[in-house]
């Protein structure tokens, strides 16, 4: 290294200028005493009180390699920290959204199922028996049930349906909203309508989640629908008798075809409804459809979803009621083969579908419309 007098003088002058600059900074920013280097606040992602004004001072601007760089990097670090750390306000808002989805879904499911309960009970009776289905036979069954057991017997098993449907619908609608948000963030569609495949996936996941958590209640409801009042007096009686006489494992008998049926049913129902709302928004220019339009969209969704999953619904009902209808407990494939062998593929696996085409669109239309209108109402009340 060269140590000539000129180079020593040059180094001395540089050191003098640097020390003067440091002194001027410490004079203009006394609040940084004890903080170490002037870079200390930037490293830890926040500035001490009053530092923002210091970064605008001439001394900070004259610091070699600093000035705007310090200010920009500080702001950037603070913005990143704010984006990562959860805000209490956002957390409260998320909790409100979940609660409003649960409440809206519960009411939607209760109204929809109560409206079609007599038709649903008639459909189940035909599904689990070997009788040939026709519209004439279905209405005859409804009429004789009314004559022999009274008007309210048409809603027999509806209390068990409510016990199942209220949590099922609440979980399904709430889970669907959450899955939409998660998939929207994942695919970069935050606040916008999801593309087709994530839309289908959100519905399928919501249905699977709800079915998994409420399945025993569905089995109890099916048992109450096909048995006389003398056999099971109430919901708790069904649980006690099944666990005592058939074992707790029976409460999940038929679970596999239920899940296999729920995936296309819930997936296609939510997919169809959300797609029709999106197309309506695009072509009508109105942000929200009218209630009767929502009913039509929901009816189309129910028609498509139930038609796609109906054979598995027949298998599920046959497996759920095997203990009280004389059919042996069997696997999905064995039950499927038995139905086809005894009644034929189309006649057996699609028995009662015309009844479903009547009740399904009504129920799904009511549930989707009620959920949407309740969400709008709760948002207005919150704001």
Describe the structure.
By secondary structure, the chain is an all-alpha fold. The protein has a domain of 97 residues. It contains 17 helices and no strands. α9 packs antiparallel against α10. It starts with a helix and ends with a helix.
How would you briefly describe this protein structure?
Helices cover 76% and strands 0% of the residues. It has 383 residues and is mostly helical.
Strand content: under 5%
Order of helices and strands: HHHHHHHHHHHHHHHHH
What is the terminal-to-terminal distance?
A: 74 Å
The count of helical stretches stands at 17
Decide which structural class fits the backbone. mainly alpha
Number of strands: 0
Task: Give descriptors for this structure.
globular; 383 residues; mainly alpha; disordered N terminus
Write the layout of secondary structure elements.
Elements: H1 5-28, H2 40-43, H3 51-55, H4 58-62, H5 68-84, H6 88-115, H7 117-127, H8 135-149, H9 158-187, H10 196-226, H11 235-245, H12 255-284, H13 291-320, H14 322-325, H15 332-343, H16 345-349, H17 353-382
Helix pairs in contact: 6-9, 6-17, 9-10, 10-12, 12-13, 13-15, 13-17
């Amino acid at each position: 290294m060269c140590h000539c007098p000129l180079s020593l003088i040059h180094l001395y002058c540089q050191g003098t200028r640097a020390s003067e600059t440091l002194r001027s900074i410490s004079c203009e920013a006394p609040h940084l005493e004890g903080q170490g280097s002037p870079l200390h606040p930037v490293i830890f992602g926040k500035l001490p009180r009053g530092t923002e004004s210091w970064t605008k001072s001439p001394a900070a601007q004259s610091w070699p390699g600093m000035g705007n760089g310090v200010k920009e990097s500080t702001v950037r670090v603070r913005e990143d920290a704010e984006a990562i750390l959860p805000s209490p306000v956002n957390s409260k808002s998320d909790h409100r959204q979940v609660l409003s989805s649960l409440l809206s879904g519960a009411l939607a499911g209760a109204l929809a199922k109560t409206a079609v309960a007599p038709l649903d009970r008639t459909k189940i009776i035909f599904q689990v028996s070997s009788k040939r289905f026709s519209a004439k036979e279905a209405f005859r069954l409804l009429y004789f049930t009314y004559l022999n057991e009274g008007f309210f017997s048409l809603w027999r098993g509806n209390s068990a349906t409510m016990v199942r449907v209220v949590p099922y619908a609440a979980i399904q609608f709430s889970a669907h909203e959450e899955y939409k948000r998660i998939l929207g963030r994942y695919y970069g569609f935050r606040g916008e309508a999801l593309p087709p495949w994530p839309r289908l996936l959100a519905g399928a996941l919501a249905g699977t989640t709800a079915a998994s958590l409420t399945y025993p209640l569905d089995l109890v409801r099916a048992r109450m629908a096909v048995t006389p009042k003398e056999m099971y007096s109430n919901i708790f009686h069904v649980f006690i008798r099944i666990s005592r006489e058939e074992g707790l494992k029976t409460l999940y008998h038929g679970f596999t075809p239920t899940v296999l049926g729920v995936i296309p049913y819930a997936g296609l129902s939510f997919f169809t409804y959300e797609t029709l709302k999106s197309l309506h928004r695009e072509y009508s220019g109105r942000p929200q459809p009218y209630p009767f339009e929502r009913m039509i969209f929901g009816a189309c969704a129910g028609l498509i979803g139930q038609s796609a999953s109906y054979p598995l619904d027949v298998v599920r009902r046959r497996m759920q009621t095997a203990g009280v209808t004389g059919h042996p407990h069997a696997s999905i494939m064995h039950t499927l083969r038995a139905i086809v062998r005894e009644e034929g593929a189309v006649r057996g696996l699609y028995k009662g579908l015309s009844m479903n085409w009547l009740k399904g669109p009504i129920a799904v239309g009511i549930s989707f419309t009620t959920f949407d209108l309740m969400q709008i109402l709760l948002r207005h009340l919150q704001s």
